[in-house]
Amino acid sequence: MKLEHTAVIGSELALAFDDGIEAYIPLLLLRRACPCAQCQGEPDALGRVVVPASTIGDRGCEVTGMETVGGYGLQIRWADGHSTGIYSYPLLRQLAAAAEN
């Protein structure tokens, strides 16, 4: 699976994959699902996942840029300066399916 095109359309991220699948993800859902350790937490020395308290700022759902990472993911830069999450293509498709329901 390869990502062929991305575009922000209103309050959604539109994605087109090489297998013909088109996906639309609300930006708020995308930001809340950021997979980075800062947002989702990371295991401590005992293996427990510690999730930090975080809030999304006023401009936290505005996309200022995007770039593909290798052949597997998309890195998004948000207007509040956050940019450490790399969204894998399977995760993006999972989020799009969740948004449809």
Automatic annotation (TrEMBL):
Listed InterPro entries: GBBH-like_N, GBBH-like_N_sf
GO molecular function: metal ion binding
Gene3D superfamilies: 3.30.2020.30
Highest taxon listed in the record's lineage: Bacteria
Keywords of the record: Iron, Metal-binding
Annotated coiled-coil segments of the chain: none
Domain Gamma-butyrobetaine hydroxylase-like N-terminal: residue ranges: 11-93
Gene source species: Haloferula luteola
Protein's UniProt name: DUF971 family protein
PANTHER family: OS02G0197800 PROTEIN (PTHR35303)
